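User: Quick one: structure for sequence A, then sequence B.

Assistant: Sequence A:
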Amino acid sequence: MRSYVDDGIVEKVRGAGGELFAITSEPQHLASQANEHWELNFENIGDPHQEISRTCSERGWLTLYANRGSLDFLQGGTDWEVEHPKGYFQPGVIALTNQGRILYRWRSIPSLNNLNGTVARPAAAYVWSSIQESISANSSSDHAPLDENPVIDQGPPPRPLFFSALIANGWFLKLKSFAYSPGVAPVPQRFKKALSRWWLFGASWATAFAMLPTVPVSLAFLCWTTWIGYQIKKTAASLDVQIELTANSGSAT
């Protein structure tokens, strides 16, 4: 979202007579907090019960995916209580005219290619360019089709590298998410810092094998790999529980 400010897209949208809003599955107090810390110049709206996103689907505008898996993984990476009573919805972008004509729409479809929706958003400048093309089109009634191949802002790291960073972020005892928390460094900085810990971790094991009896060290290493393997499997399973937010998708308790 920050790129819409940095690239000047917010002012371009307003210059064209429009407005930009961010909608999140977080409660409003966290949405407002993120707005302040990220220094956004447009409004963040909390939608924890997914009323706005479901309305968009009911009107045929845009149907998002939502994660309904366990929140334990996210909670382990934050210092505040995760509040997603109906799960958290995946990213989407929609641009509408006052008459309800769709100028642009995109949704994240969780997959291995985007690390279950963690990365790969349409670049802000690309979105604005697509909106301008729709505005300039001769038809005043045709809706823009769902964009299935946008220019993305950031490609995903390899999945093994992603999980390696999560392991290191949890100090090799568990997988810890890079979830937003007030005052913490941006994710790319924390991601690189976590990966740098592998050098010390590897050196520690090498020293242990060189200076201590081989059998107990080998058993300890086997126990660690078994535990981390279980953590990876558990985390991957929680990220894979995805549904579409249609009118008939039901509610989570």
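Sequence B:
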Amino acid sequence: MIKTMNFDYSPAEHEAEKASNSYLMSLVAVIAGLPLPIINLAATLIFYLGNRKGTYFVRWHCTQALLSQFSLLAMNSVGFWWTIGIIFQNATLDSGYISYMITIFLFNATEFIATMYTAIKTRKGIHVEWWIYGGLTNLICKP
């Protein structure tokens, strides 16, 4: 799922810090706005927009962090609105809902752990590519 490698050059201290902070933004947003799935994306998008003119290392990691938030937004939004529908429309809990909520929990937990790992490695100047998002980031972000 995660591939670590060295970048073509060794990023400077400030570059590694900014790249690491792009991942930490989503973690801080999770704590601040847990029930609202859009908060994570907004925080990561704002950080991305602030650093889109930075060095390639910083831009690349800001882009990967942003792409990962789009899939989380989609999955968490479905779960959020399904839960709202159950609460306010007196819908019944069924096995489909419970299965989806377990899937969302596992997906979010995996993304949380991967984000922590990536933030730590990136802070050390190690380039970390996620399985799907790394390839997409390579297509979007050019040196």
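The chain is about 75% helix and 5% strand. Strands lie at 2-5, 127-130.

User: Thanks, that's what I needed.
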